[in-house]
Amino acid sequence: MLECCGLCKSYGRTEVVKDVDLLLPEGKILGLLGPNGAGKSTLIKMITGLVWPSGGNASINGYDVHNEHERALQDVGAIVEWPSLFPYLTARENLKLIVGRRDKEFNNMIEEVSRFVDMSSVLDKKVGTFSTGMKQRIGLTLAMLPASRFLILDEPTNGLDPGGMIELRQILKRIHAERGATIMISSHLLGEVEQICTDVAILHQGRIVANKPLADFTEQRGTLIFQATPLEKAKEVFKQAAQSLPITNMRTEQTKGEISFLVDADHNLVSEVNRLLINAGCAVSHASFKRRHLEDVFTELTTDSYQKYDSAILPQETLHVD
Amino acid sequence: MWTDVWGELIKLKSQRKSYVVLLGHLGILILLYMSVSSTGFTGFARQVGRDVGLRPEEIFDAFYFSRMVMGVTFLMLLPIYICTLAGDMIAGEIQEGGLKLTATRPRSRSRIVLSKAISLGICSIILCIVTSLFTLLCSILLFDVSETQIIILNPNIVGMSFCLMKSDTALFRMLCTCGLYGFSIFALGCITLFYSTLVSRMTTATVLGMTTYFVSYFIEIMPQASSIRPYLLSHVMGGWNYLWLNTPAWDRFLYSQLHLAMYIFVFVGLSLTVFSYRDIR
């Protein structure tokens, strides 16, 4: 559905988005995560044709967003940054004006979609009188009209209270389940993304540093915990393992007099590390894998020292034994 | 396209500033009425009356008063309003964010600019006609209509400061002038629309539009500007003066209207080009 190839954007000498490759198949919900200033909004603006890329291209359903704008955005409903509706018009008039349709069929669509997001009773009220939550819902109605199959929502829960966030989350899940829509949400609220999305892409300093199914982030990656003696030999094994295996952030922890080695790694490395320790003549008294939350992965990836965990090897000097 | 034009017109109709300009026009009408009621007839009319052998009562009538009111509205109020409107159409909507919603729909940037330009033209013409008819109606209710009309002209454009004509002829030409002035301020609107595509703040675009308009008037009266005078915006906007001559100077009138059309095409073209390639941030 969406394909970005080498998408770049520079403002003067500042590179805001750098060489972004992104693929979003139909039926998925992609969460685009990133700290403030990571380039999320700029990337979304390029995908929706608001901003011209400095390099690369974005296509939706095979049509280039910038050169075949109308065809590419035929099935797309997007809310970028904030649903800035016209406050002096009614919600219905806003929808007609922005979508650019005034026929009877479209009127029926408005009725149907507004019922879906529970806004049918306020369609003929002026948007200026609406609360933030109501504006977000009208924004969502707008994104769904006339029959959008791909929704692009830039921080849709911004300004919402917890109740509003829960409601919006439920609506998005329903849109995905009942209408089969593909959704791309940008956010810095990890909890939101974890509850809605099927896939996650993490953007840091303008680059995609990770892009995979959510399950791969939260289930596969975690912390390996080992208790092994003698300590010096075990330390040497970890040093050597760091050279050849995708393990990062080695540290030690002392609990109840026992010293544990902790490393960030995929769960399938438990047996591999265990084998290395045993082969080196260490006695392993404990080996476990602690699953992490998306927040842990996000923090690791967006901290400058650990930008690419997939290939990064921890520098030796950070390994220490208390 | 026409659905978008209709949408733009609904937007204009729903905005409070559209009614503020009508209130402003009413204010001008009331102030001028109070002014002429308290001071009698204007000095200029009295002086001209003496020159042509007419009594001030014969000169100062409903049509003369309506031309006075429309002069202020056309030269000051409507240009300011149209600059505000055009400045808001793109830069204002970028600033407020509304344009992001419109531009992410499957419609081309050219369609967005063209629909805005067309609605600007329709709005200019409607506004000129509505204010003129309203003024004329009020003037007829307040004053009598004389048989002979004294028409004040712009000597910089037609080379004479007034002419005399029959009331029915003057009424017809006044209605034509109102429609044509809509075309003139549409040209100013197109210039401001271009500024609106260049900058991201509504006030900047509006001020640029108004500056262009007023500076053009200043340049026109400068003796050094004689070679460029026929092409100046203020000069071509005043092309309606040719219609008021006893024998209208059709060739010069058409020439000025062609210049206006050129202003419109050039600036709409520039707006289309700039807006098609600019980032909406």
Describe, in short, the structure shown:
By secondary structure, chain A is of the alpha/beta class.
Observed structural traits:
heterodimer, A: about 325 residues, alpha/beta, six-stranded mixed β-sheet, four-stranded antiparallel β-sheet, 11 helices, 14 strands, about 30% strand, elongated, B: mainly alpha, two-stranded antiparallel sheet
Tell me what you see in this structure.
The complex is a heterodimer of chains A (322) and B (281). With 322 residues, chain A is an alpha/beta fold. Helix content of chain A is 35%, strand content 30%. Residues 305-322 of chain A have low confidence and may be disordered. Chain B has twelve helices and two strands, in the order H-H-H-H-H-H-H-E-H-E-H-H-H-H. Chain B has helices at residues 2-14, 16-39, 43-52, 56-59, 62-96, 98-103, 109-142, 155-158, 167-198, 202-221, 233-237, 250-277; strands at residues 148-152, 162-166. A two-stranded antiparallel ribbon of chain B has the order 1-2. In chain B, helix 7 packs antiparallel against helix 9 (167-198) and helix 9 (167-198) runs parallel beside helix 12. Chain B starts with a helix and ends with a helix. The mean pLDDT of chain B is 85. The A-B interface holds A 45, 48-52, 69-74, 76, 78-86, 88-89, 93, 96-102, 142, 152 and B 3-4, 6-7, 10-11, 14-16, 96-98, 100-109, 277, 279-281.
